[in-house]
């Protein structure tokens, strides 16, 4: 606990310098970077900062799920503004989400680690070369992922690769192509040094990682499969679909080595299933572990989507209207949601409860308390923020293969997901374009997981048949504005032209 407190003080004071706020160190860094216990504390701290960045104001879903997505807001005017793309509306939520400070906190903490890890190696003989190499790979990955996510949200962002422990020099926004080149290079180098799993005598990490068993690290840390999965997303975002197919194929060829597997619909949607706590099957996720007294009232999808009869709340903040549900889930016997064609009654309600009411409840994710014994009157949640999973990568690989002309392989992967959900296999004569079918399946499978807006951007870049959306892309309107506070603090930062 003492080391965690020290690191937190170090991180926040250094982070404030990075963000051009006057600060002073409460603790000398020389008193921290001395042992492998310090590196462990600092490393876990970086993951905690990323989790906080994604959970704060439910940012992961606000950025990826609401805008032009399937969810409607009942009463929250700030959420309605995000849904309609009015991102400069005068709401505190939107100003907070426009501020990239919390992601630079992750980057600064990772930079600090990379600058000081060699000090620990020199001072602590128990800190092995292999341990250091794996730690460095994780921090480089986490820094790169933070940049990838920021580029996805803001476009051009400052590229900062040192912690600036001292007077910070303002930097302008860097062209996003330069940032993404840095991201890909860092992730590739990290992938080479990351193990498939920790504390399992992997060639990249033998023995017990920080004297813990594999169960302690299950699904918590970045691994080799994590790096290649995110590399596939990075390449697809850039439209480099040949590269995306290479990275995606690595995941599909090696997922079992990392403890990943395809999910049944029951495992995906039950309260103590896939979204509960930490699992090797979380290729990249940021967990809230009930067993570590880590559940929270906010920072979870359930906070916004659940209501009666699932929890004791009159109405949800966001919901999917009936017409949208019926237009999206149009396949009979779909285990996620479907209606009986004769009676009109739901045959599966795994994604939606209370369908016959005016406000259906999206209950795909419902890890209340520990996921096993939930008291509906006590609204505390412990679900993991899932960034990507095997089904996501499978459909992303289908997308990549379809774009580069490998149609049958793409169809096979699409059908892999359809078979899991018990719906008919793809038929071009009945359904039309393969790309359309793949993105329709992504819409169903990943609903509520923070991907809808980013999928719409990639889809429109591929199809090139929606002039209004293409104009939004060309003008930079797909990105968020930069918070006024950031621009005031750093005169070199210019507002996204679309939002000026």
Task: Describe this protein's structure.
- The longest helix has 26 residues, at 129-154.
- Residues 1-28 have low confidence and may be disordered.
- This protein is globular.
- 49% of the residues lie in helices and 4% in strands.
- The protein is built from 21 helices and 8 strands.
- The chain has a two-stranded antiparallel ribbon with strand order 1-3. It has a two-stranded antiparallel ribbon with strand order 2-8.
Number of β-strand runs: 8
Number of helices: 21
Question: What percentage of residues falls in helices of 4 or more residues?
Answer: 40-55%
Could you give the order of the helices and strands?
Answer: HHHEHHHHHHHHHEHEHEEEEEHHHHHHH
Give me the secondary-structure category.
mainly alpha
Which quaternary structure do these chains form? single chain
Shape field: globular
With strands numbered from the N-terminus, the spatial order across the biggest sheet is 1-3
Instruction: Tell me about the largest β-sheet.
Output: 2 strands, antiparallel
Distance between the termini: 45 Å
Rg (CA only): 22 Å
Low-confidence stretches: 1-28
Mean pLDDT equals 92
What is the beta-strand fraction? Answer: under 5%
């Amino acid at each position: 606990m003492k080391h965690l407190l020290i690191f937190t003080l170090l991180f926040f004071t250094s982070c404030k310098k990075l963000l051009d706020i006057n600060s002073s160190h409460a603790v000398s860094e020389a008193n921290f970077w001395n042992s492998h216990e310090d590196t462990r504390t600092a490393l876990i701290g970086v993951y905690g900062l990323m989790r906080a960045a994604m959970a704060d104001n439910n940012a992961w879903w606000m950025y990826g799920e609401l805008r032009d997505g399937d969810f409607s807001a009942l009463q929250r005017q700030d959420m309605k503004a995000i849904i309609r793309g009015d991102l400069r509306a005068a709401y505190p939520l939107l100003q907070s989400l426009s501020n990239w400070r919390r992601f630079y906190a992750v980057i600064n903490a990772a930079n600090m680690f990379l600058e000081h890890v060699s000090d620990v190696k020199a001072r602590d003989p128990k800190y092995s070369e292999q341990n250091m190499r794996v730690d460095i790979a994780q921090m480089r990955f986490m820094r790169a992922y933070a940049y990838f996510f920021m580029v996805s949200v803001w476009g051009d962002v400052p590229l900062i690769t040192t912690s600036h422990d001292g007077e910070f020099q303002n930097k302008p926004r860097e062209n996003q192509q330069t940032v993404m080149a840095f991201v890909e290079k860092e992730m590739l180098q990290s992938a080479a040094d990351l193990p498939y799993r920790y504390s399992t005598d992997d060639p990249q990490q033998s023995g017990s990682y920080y004297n813990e068993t594999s169960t302690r690290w299950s699904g918590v840390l970045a691994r080799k499969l994590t790096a290649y999965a995110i590399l596939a997303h990075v390449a697809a975002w850039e439209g480099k679909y040949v590269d995306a197919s290479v990275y995606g194929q690595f995941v599909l060829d090696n997922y079992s080595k990392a403890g990943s597997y395809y999910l049944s619909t029951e495992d995906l949607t039950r309260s103590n299933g896939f979204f509960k706590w930490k699992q090797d099957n979380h290729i990249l996720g940021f967990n809230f572990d009930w067993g570590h007294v880590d559940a929270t009232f906010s920072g979870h999808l359930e906070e916004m989507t659940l209501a009666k009869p699932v929890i004791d709340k009159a109405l949800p903040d966001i919901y999917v209207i009936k017409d949208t549900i019926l237009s999206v889930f149009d396949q009979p016997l779909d285990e996620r949601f479907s209606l009986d064609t004769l009676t009109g009654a739901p045959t599966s309600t795994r994604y939606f409860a209370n369908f016959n009411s005016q406000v259906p409840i999206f209950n795909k994710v419902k890890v209340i308390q520990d996921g096993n014994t939930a008291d509906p009157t006590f609204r505390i949640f412990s679900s993991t923020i899932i960034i990507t999973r095997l089904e996501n990568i499978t459909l992303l690989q289908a997308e990549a293969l379809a774009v580069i002309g490998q149609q049958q392989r793409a169809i096979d992967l699409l059908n892999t997901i359809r078979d899991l959900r018990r719906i008919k296999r793809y038929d071009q004569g009945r359904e039309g374009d393969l790309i359309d079918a793949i993105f329709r399946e992504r819409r169903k499978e990943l609903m509520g997981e923070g991907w809808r807006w980013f999928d719409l951007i990639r889809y429109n870049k591929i199809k090139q048949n929606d002039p209004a959306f293409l104009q939004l892309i060309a003008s930079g309107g797909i990105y968020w504005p930069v918070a006024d506070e950031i621009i005031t603090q750093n005169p070199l930062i210019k507002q996204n032209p679309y939002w000026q």
